[in-house]
Write a structure and sequence with these properties.
Shape: globular
Number of strands: 23
Order of helices and strands: EHEEEHEHEHEHHEEEEEEEEEEEEEEEE
Number of helices: 6
Strand content: 35-45%
Largest sheet: 8 strands, antiparallel
Radius of gyration: 20 Å
CATH architecture of the largest domain: 3-Layer(aba) Sandwich
CATH class of the largest domain: Alpha Beta
Number of domains: 3
């Protein structure tokens, strides 16, 4: 049941032409399911930060989950420019855009094309303002990405938790997107940074009980022997190490917690801000949004002290972005190196 998560900047009206409204939080989600020719089910999941550009973090969360992008261009303005560079910085190489000005508006199509090229999104394609056509193009994109999505499911498990609550008769339920790997019923899980151990009692994906959830799925995990305090403030679930594969025996966990990092950033094409010692910045990584201060700048590298511990991947920065909320655009760029100090 492969799922393509698509970060969308656009209107609720157009989103509902493409997929069925599913969830309303800081980000609104819309889901469309289809059966492929081989009988398997394909799923599109649009993730739309409803209050962008007023609020940046929900958009960054959507970018961290998405593997494709979609923009409805209503006007050429600062918000469009920021959205384009954010998609580019997040490495969203596959995407679609439509030009759909308001009834009394006009958009220079050649200028939009030029901006998309300048932002580094030359592989994105323009489509008509037609929900069915957009859906068909996104389904084609999903089919082209099946190999990549399958490969992500074979990686070590990472599930950032963005909601949790108690359900009568079931207990504590944690909800989040499977960023990579897969989780099955009865798996032993470790919540970081608290290091609390729990068991996956049952799983739900899109309101259906399942035995396994894989990369791309938004999963609800009913957790046995879990403490609600473990899931607060940016918790991430991974597989608990077994006695044969413990970190003490040379198999490290996929994440490590730190408050000081050395960072290298690839700035986006529209970013002219030069960061200096003392600047306040934010990192967006695996649904974490943490503030820090630059303590040293040396060549292409910066040392940053974070106000709270952050969980970083041992095998690379993933889709981590560096941001500064008083810059324009607020997204500084993609973090290419993120090293624990």
């Amino acid at each position: 049941m492969p799922v393509l998560n698509i970060a969308m900047i656009g209107t609720d009206e157009l989103a509902k032409e493409i997929a069925k409204s599913s969830d309303q939080r800081d980000v609104h989600t819309y889901v469309h399911k289809e059966n492929a020719a081989d009988g398997s089910q394909r799923i599109l999941s649009l993730i739309r930060p409803a209050r962008f550009p007023e609020r940046l973090p929900p958009f960054l969360e959507a970018l961290g989950v998405a593997r494709a992008g979609f923009i409805e261009v209503k006007a050429i303005d600062a918000a469009l420019g920021e959205a384009l560079v954010a998609f580019s910085s997040a490495g969203i190489e596959r995407g679609l855009y439509v030009i759909n000005p308001s009834d009394d508006g006009w958009v220079d199509e050649e200028r939009v094309t030029a901006l998309i090229q300048q932002a580094g999104l030359s592989s994105w394609n323009r489509v008509n303002v037609d929900g069915i056509e957009i859906r068909e193009k996104l389904m084609e994109m999903l089919d082209q990405m099946l190999h990549e999505l399958t490969a992500e499911a074979a990686m070590p498990l990472i599930i950032p938790i963005d909601q949790h609550f108690n359900v009568k008769g079931i207990g504590l339920v944690a909800i989040g997107y499977v960023q990579q790997g897969s989780v099955s019923v009865h798996d032993e899980l470790l919540a970081l940074p608290s290091e609390g151990n729990a068991n996956a009692r049952s799983l739900q994906v899109m309101d259906d009980d399942v035995q396994t959830a894989v990369a791309g799925d938004r999963v609800g995990i009913a957790m046995r022997n879990a403490d609600e305090a473990w899931l607060s403030n940016g918790a991430i679930l991974i597989h608990a190490p077994t006695p044969e594969k413990s970190s003490e025996e040379g198999v490290p966990l996929p994440l490590t917690s730190t408050t000081v990092t050395k960072v290298k950033v690839e700035k986006n094409p529209f970013q002219r801000k030069e960061l200096v010692m003392g600047d306040v910045v934010h990192i967006a990584s695996d649904l974490q949004f943490v503030v820090g201060r630059i303590t040293k700048v040396e060549g292409e590298y910066m040392d940053i002290e974070w106000d709270a511990p952050i969980l970083i991947r041992r095998d690379g920065p993933g889709r981590a972005l560096l941001n500064q909320l008083d810059s324009s655009p607020r997204v500084i760029g993609r973090i290419t190196e993120l090293i624990e100090e």
